[in-house]
Amino acid sequence: MTIMRAAHGACEHRDGTLKPTVALFVTCLVDLFRPSVGFAAIKLIEHAGCRLVVPKGQTCCGQPAFNAGDRADAIAIAKQVIAAFEGYDYVVAPSGSCAATLKKHYPELFADDAEWAPRVEAFSAKVFELVSFLTDVRGVKDVCASLNASVTYHDSCSGLRELGVRQQPRQLLQSVKGLRLKELPESDVCCGFGGTFCVKYPDVSNAIVGKKAKHIASTRADMLLAGDLGCLMNMDGKLKREAIAIEVRHIAEVLAGMTDKPPIGGKL
Amino acid sequence: MQITSPTFKANTVKALADVDLQRALRHVETGFIGKRQKAADALPEFDALRDNAKAIKEHTLQHLDLYIEAYVAKVEASGGKVHFAEDADHARRIFLDIAKRRKAKTVTKGKTMISEEIGLNAFLEEHGITPVETDLGEYIIQLRGEHPSHIIAPAIHVNRDQVEADFRKTHVDLDPQRDLTRPETLLSEAREILRRKYGEADIGVTGANFLIAETGTSVIVTNEGNGDLTQLLGKCHVVLASIEKLMPTLEDTAQILRVLARSATGQEMSVYTTLSTGPKRAEDEDGPDEYHVILLDNGRSNMLGTEFEDMLRCIRCGACMNHCPVYHAVGGHSYGWVYPGPMGAVLTPSLIGVDKAGHLPNASTFCGRCESVCPMRIPLPKMMRHWREKEFESHLQPQAVRTGLNLWAYFARRPKLYRTVVSFAMPLLKLLAGRKRRFRMLPLASGWTKWRDMPAPEGRTFMQAYAQSGHGHGDER
Question: Are the Cβ atoms of A57 and B415 closer than 8 angstroms?
Fold first, then answer.
């Protein structure tokens, strides 16, 4: 497998007179496991003509608590996130899952709270998943990166079904020079990660990711991409265990032309 | 039936190792999904019909008492009788009273999940009455002494070879040399056996897809026509139905029929849509002498007005389980009671208690595919989460899970402390992983590393790296 490292072309910044300010919600997994994705997101957001800030008070979106039925902690964490992020024009996360929590589920958490509900609504309206922010909000059509490789793309569930992220990543991938997109069979089927699901029901999760790994291998692509690090770590872990040689990366790394770092989980 | 939901985990391990089951489950993935998609794509107003269907059921549930009252009046006016059953035991006793009065020895049955819910077959056998399932799938699993593993395809877990073996074992009076290698030959053999039973039956039992308040009519949809024969040729027709089957009018019912079969099997309509109103009238040539409806509550009225009310919109199409990756992996029996898949994960805790069915709403990745195909737009993942909230409130989750969650939340709520800890931990983890950049084993993460490697972190956290990268911090707070 030869992958020519992506390189950014001489793309002009979109230079609007009024640059909107984007607060990067980096997500806990990117923060802890793959900072490269955060830096790729910064590059993409700045190239889309935005000013970028990274609010310090961030840890996690609270989804683990929310999905475990622990509403009190979920609400406390949500308030913390809202307070840190609500002052900016946009809040962007390199994850459909975390963005959906901020955008779709925070309003549910505060539905009965007359004081917070309007504040949450205003906050949630400003939240976007990274790739759809670039295309749908900033009108980016071409990312000016190049990568001589065949890639396949997995549609992570939350981004796909809660935020309607489907065409946007394909559109931007097709603008990467030299990149050949090979569609993944059943790309819209869950990879079996599901947050704590994968450790609470490891055997069921394994059956699901096992099927996913077979589909990924069948594409014979050089690289597997997705927009959520949780899914990527799950799929990479299974691919490595099954000794299936394919580089696994977050889509932002390719779109930003930043594939110089070793892939997720290293190489086989 | 015996509830095995508490041992869900063990059930799944067994199911994952069952080669025949795994082969059968491939049919769910490959068959239903494409057919539903094709049917939905062929009908431009499909999504609008879903909105309409949802609105009709929402309205009905809001006025359920009135519609039940109107329905009962109409059934009685047509010469039938409605019996209210509070729970499974009550429903069984009502049925036994009818059967005893009619001195019933044989009962033919169309497909009914309520019969499974009240465990009717075993109960009848205890009382010397022979139940005969007439839906092919139900007939097969009755021969096998099993329960349905899918609400519309009860024998989806059984393969053709197994059916052949069951038929040879049961139909011993037939020629042992006969050819049973094709589905058609199996079908005609079952048909031949079952045709004899309809006329002999003392009672014909069916379920109901809808009960129509406007006319006092019960509606069933089938593809085999067995339901029609069951209810027409039996001398007494007993309908088993739960309270949420009520519909205001025939017109409303017609609307929901347009999404039902498309969502279930991808058909525009099921082969038979059969309406029955009361017993045989004086001028009718055929039909039952008596018509009874056993209207079962069994916990459903407790769902009204709660966060679980939306579940009562369910029309039992099976689309949620047909699209569920967990169902695809482990099949219906793993869920341990009558209703499997996402709809079962929400409904089962309501009906048998979350203490017994707690695993079900947890065994979901929240991928949302079920909700995306539900014709009644039931927010299934949201309601599974509500069950998790109930479990959390009642301290039903395992202690290890609770401790882990509390510890994590403690740090997540304290950004400065969190930073200090992860800034130290992540570089250390990277170091431990070494040049491979992943772990084959990791203490406290065996659930992950049992089947997967664990990718190692890159080293410094993003926040550390960002602070050290010379990026201006802008006006971040």
Answer: yes
Residues of chain B with CATH 3.40.50.10420: 43-298
- Residues 6 or more apart from A105 whose CB is under 8 A from it? A63, A66
B473 vs B323: CA distance, rounded Å? 46
> Average pLDDT of each block of 10 consecutive residues along chain A (268 residues)?
40 65 98 98 97 96 97 97 98 98 98 97 98 98 96 98 98 98 98 96 98 98 98 98 98 98 96
Q: Identify which of B368, B388, B452 has the shortest CB distance to residue A69.
A: B388
| pLDDT (0 to 100) of residue A7 | 40
A196 with B401: Cβ contact below 8 A: yes
Distance between CA atoms of residues A118 and A96, nearest Å? 23
CATH of domain A142-255: 3.40.50.11810
| A194–B476 C-beta distance less than 8 A | no
CA distances to A262, B78, B79, B210, B279 from B282, rounded to whole Å, are: 83, 12, 11, 26, 10
**At residue B106, does pLDDT exceed 70?**
yes
- CB contact under 8 Å between B389 and A69, yes or no, is yes
Residue B426 is predicted with a pLDDT of 97
DSSP string spanning B134-153?
-SHHHHHHHHHT---SSSS-
Taking an 8 Å cut-off on Cβ atoms, the answer to whether B366 and A194 are in contact is: yes
> Which residues pair with residue B84 across a beta bridge?
B295
Contacts of A188 in chain B (CB under 8 A): 369
Tens digits of per-residue pLDDT, B37-90?
999 999 999 999 999 999 999 999 999 999 999 999 999 999 999 999 999 999
B-contacting residues in A 11-70 (Cβ below 8 Å): 21, 23, 26, 28, 30-36, 38-39, 42, 51-60, 62, 64-70
Distance from CA of A110 to the nearest CA of B (A): 15
Tell me if chain B has a CB within 8 Å of the CB of A206.
yes
For the record, the structure tokens of A59 come out as: 């840890």
Residue A150, beta-bridge partner list: A180
- Which among A27, A31, A228 is the top mutation candidate for probing chain B, defined by the most B β-carbons within 10 Å of its own β-carbon? A31
Higher pLDDT: A55 or B401? It is A55
Q: Which helix (H) or strand (E) holds A198?
A: helix A197-200
How far is the CA of B288 from the CAs of B105, B194, B224, B228, in angstroms? Answer: 16, 19, 20, 11
Give the range among A79-83, A172-176, B224-228, B254-258 with minimum mean pLDDT: B224-228
Question: Does the pLDDT of residue B474 top 60, yes or no?
Answer: no
Q: State whether CATH 1.20.1050 applies to domain A4-135.
A: yes
The pLDDT of residue B1 is: 83
The minimal CB distance from A32 to the residues B366, B388, B426 is found for B426
Q: By CA distance, what is B26's nearest residue in A?
A: A211
Least Cα separation, residue B283 to chain A (angstroms):
55
In chain B, the largest separation of any two C-alpha atoms, in whole Å, equals: 93
In chain A, helix, strand, coil percent, each to 5? 45, 15, 40
Domain ranges of chain A: 4-135, 142-255
Task: Give the pLDDT confidence score for residue A15 in this predicted structure.
Answer: 55
Span B43-298 CATH architecture: 3-Layer(aba) Sandwich (3.40)
The per-residue pLDDT for B428 is 96
pLDDT reading at B473 higher than 60: no
Give the residue among B458, B449, B412 at the shortest CA–CA distance from B431.
B458
CA dihedral sign, ordered A228, A231, A234, A238:
negative
